[in-house]
Fold this sequence. Notes:
Elements: H1 2-30, E1 41-51, E2 55-67, E3 72-85, E4 88-102, E5 107-119, E6 126-131, E7 133-142, E8 145-154, E9 169-177
Antiparallel strand pairs: 1-2, 2-3, 3-4, 4-5, 5-6, 5-7, 7-8, 8-9
Amino acid sequence: MKILRQLLFITIMLFVGTNTTIMAQEDTESEPQKKFDASRLVFGGNIGASFNNRTGYAEVSPLVGYRFTNRFVAGLGPSYMYYKFAGYGTHIYGGRLFASYYLLNLIFVHGEYEMLNIDFGSIVGRKWIQRLPLGAGISQQLGPARVNFVALYDVLYNNNSSQFYATPWIFRGGVSFGW
């Protein structure tokens, strides 16, 4: 199973890297080369909260990116989460890099590299975990914003090093501005 995941990861990276390079060259040929243009900045991220009498969750993870071409966006952002379960609470912090390439106006491929510092309790202590979610999504323009839905698979996931997450699958929906 591990070899199959590694082979899948290498295949996806080669496919996405090759297509991104070729298509990015095509995009840059049709667009004049410019210096930094603040109008090409994009903003997004995650914000959420859920609490009840036993558990709690809050997250703030803003993202800022740059639209290098009309199809390719890349950027970074900090992450902060708070989890509480049965009286034990922990603060989680870190950051991530991301890249999205729009194959069509509606469909995009997406990848991230994320590092999070998580407190696993007094026995293990704080530990950095890494994630490399790769996947695809759909996006629809609604006025000045885009509504996005994406499905990602963490290719670095394993049961021993990713004790914090129950599954390698990540499903997200949200709104972004400037895309």
